[in-house]
Amino acid sequence: MHTPHIRTSRRTLLALIGASLVAGPLVATQSATAAPAGLDDPAKKEIAMKLVSSAENSSLDWKAQYKYIEDIGDGRGYTAGIIGFCSGTGDMLDLVELYTRRKPGNVLAKYLPALREVNGSDSHDGLDPGFPGDWRRAAQDTAFQQAQNDERDRVYFDPAVRQGKADGIGALGQFTYYDAIVMHGDGGDSTSFSSIRRRALAKAKPPSQGGDEVTWLNAFLDARVWAMKQEEAHSDTSRVDTEQRVFVRKRNLNLDPPLDWQVYGDSYHIG
């Protein structure tokens, strides 16, 4: 975040203008310093990555998931990488295309025709038997790791944070949005992130519209649980019930550690 540099420049400018002008602007500076960090604060983002990894991979070591790949039987083909890019939903194709633009001739480039062909289905045609092994090999390449980071941010993280800030919610609320987009995407179907948010709007208002933040988050999580239950593969709602709702009940709207939660019966802690 660039705020510290802005504050330094402002103080320097004020000093040049004259001490008589310092008092007013410095109040704003102190207020900005006290404002809670958004989920895009590096420390908060690291927490978000660990929370998602606990639900997606039963581990807080999210960086170990670059190499992860399997078909979990949810109709989306292969699920892989740090946030579960899927061969059947297009985001895996986008990732491999990005990687190939940056590093032509990489070990996954030869699968691009097959990834285009299976997009929208659970088919492995043209991917088996070599794709999983080649994915794990590619995951040792820092260029592929960076491509995963960048696609995660472009498609999932950044849109969630933008919408959360527009709705006037803090780091916890922004995380509930991020986790929802990771699982449901943001397409046009009834269980997508935007549809979940619209369902919540029928019950409550976000702070940007004069609503109470906790009331809004509960309405959003209610809508999220409904969406999860529409799909057998996502019908276990513990990532909401024993993770996100725990933080909401404690009114930990800034997602400040220590954090204790459970997913699928496993306990986790961030100190």
Chart the SSEs and their pairings:
Layout: H1 3-17, H2 23-34, H3 42-57, E1 69-71, E2 78-80, E3 85-86, H4 91-102, H5 112-118, H6 131-138, H7 142-166, H8 171-184, H9 193-201, H10 213-228, H11 238-249, E4 259-263, E5 266-270
Antiparallel strand pairs: 1-2, 2-3, 4-5
Helix pairs in contact: 4-7, 7-8, 8-10, 9-10, 10-11
Subcellular location: Secreted
EC number: 3.2.1.132
Keywords: Glycosidase, Hydrolase, Secreted, Signal
Could you explain how this protein is built, in words?
The chain has eleven helices and five strands, in the order H-H-H-E-E-E-H-H-H-H-H-H-H-H-E-E. The radius of gyration is 21 Å and the shape is globular. The chain has helices spanning 3-17, 23-34, 42-57, 91-102, 112-118, 131-138, 142-166, 171-184, 193-201, 213-228, 238-249; strands at residues 69-71, 78-80, 85-86, 259-263, 266-270. Helix 7 (142-166) crosses helix 8, helix 8 (171-184) packs parallel to helix 10 (213-228) and helix 10 (213-228) packs antiparallel against helix 11 (238-249). Strand 4 (259-263) and strand 5 (266-270) form a beta hairpin. The strands form two sheets. It has a three-stranded antiparallel beta sheet with strand order 1-2-3, covered by helices on one side. Strands 4-5 form a two-stranded antiparallel sheet. It folds into two domains: 3-34; 42-270, Chitosanase, subunit A, domain 1, CATH 1.20.141. It is mainly α and 271 residues long. It starts with a helix and ends with a strand. Residues 1-34 have low confidence and may be disordered.
